[in-house]
Amino acid sequence: MTHLQAGLSPETLEKAKVELKENPETLHQDIQEVRDMIITRPDIGFLRTDDAFILRFLRARKFNHFEAFRLLAQYFEYRQQNLDMFKNLKPTDPGIKQALKDGFPGVLSNLDKYGRKILVLFAANWDQSRYTFVDILRAILLSLESMIEDPELQVNGFILIIDWSNFTFKQASKLTPSMLRLAIEGLQDSFPARFGGIHFVNQPWYIHALYTVIRPFLKDKTRKRIFMHGNNLNSLHQLIHPEILPSELGGMMPPYDMGTWARTLLDHAYDEETDYCPESYTLSVQDLERDLEKNMSPKTMKRSQSVVEPGVLKRPDKVKSEEDNMQPLLSLD
């Protein structure tokens, strides 16, 4: 075991070896091979290239050198292309702070049986008069940056549960295809985290419509890890034991305190009052949407439009039963 593996338990060391093909004898060589590829992308500013940083990208791509480098490049390229999103990326930023205090994201104290950290989002908490969807995305990315420092989570990964209870059509109308694509690019394509499952519960028909819009932008691997439970919490509990879930998700734990994770990040700044409204945010969401739409290739736009007209939520003629909406249960690595 090298010093780069010092934070791993014996069980996680074995998991890294078996599932991720992590070999302590070649670890430094693996890292250097990824680092040597940086010269092939002079258009990107690689602001951090130390061993520990590159290692998390290797773990996220099961030590495939080329895929790890591509993820590393996309990580910095995403930040270059969305500079305003990453200005003042800290918990005390007014928009981020408001989102964190409303539980975006929530982080459960207990890990699942595979050692994965569980993130929860209660969608109806989004107060659109106080912060934007981009603020929520920034709060999530900031939180992941903090948590991915833990080598155990680099190996074991994360689970995401989104509860759509009481999420209104009006709120959903703010989730434009461009904004959703921005989130997909930031989380699926540009961040070194292993997501073992993404669970939707209590989703209304218009969330199914939005999922249809974004589905073409999801990798096949991601699509297979999205579970639509609807009101069937029993199917959720087959994958995540209710002993570690809050009561809102049919679990045995007390109701989730939305400020738990925010207090961890903000510490003494949690109770400080901050004047903020979304309109004062330096990033223009409308400009960002226009830039995203402009950058979409004709082929991509054609695929998106063939599924559903962007920006329009159409009620399906027939909504599938919750049992039909539930994806097949499968073993997640």
From TrEMBL:
It is found in: Cytoplasmic vesicle, Clathrin-coated vesicle; Early endosome membrane; Golgi apparatus, trans-Golgi network membrane. Residues 96-257 form the CRAL-TRIO domain. GO terms for biological process: lysosome organization. Gene3D superfamilies: Alpha-tocopherol transfer, CRAL-TRIO lipid binding domain, N-terminal domain of phosphatidylinositol transfer protein sec14p. GO terms for molecular function: phosphatidylinositol bisphosphate binding. Transmembrane segments: none annotated. GO terms for cellular component: clathrin-coated vesicle; early endosome membrane; trans-Golgi network. SUPFAM superfamilies: CRAL/TRIO domain (SSF52087), CRAL/TRIO N-terminal domain (SSF46938). Keywords: Cytoplasmic vesicle, Endosome, Golgi apparatus, Lipid-binding, Membrane. Residues 312-323 have a biased composition (Basic and acidic residues). It comes from the Eukaryota. Residues 293-333 are annotated as: Disordered. It is a peripheral membrane protein. PANTHER family: ALPHA-TOCOPHEROL TRANSFER PROTEIN-RELATED (PTHR10174), CLAVESIN-2 (PTHR10174:SF73). Required for normal morphology of late endosomes and/or lysosomes in neurons. Binds phosphatidylinositol 3,5-bisphosphate (PtdIns(3,5)P2). This is Clavesin-2. The lineage of its organism: Eukaryota, Metazoa, Chordata, Craniata, Vertebrata.
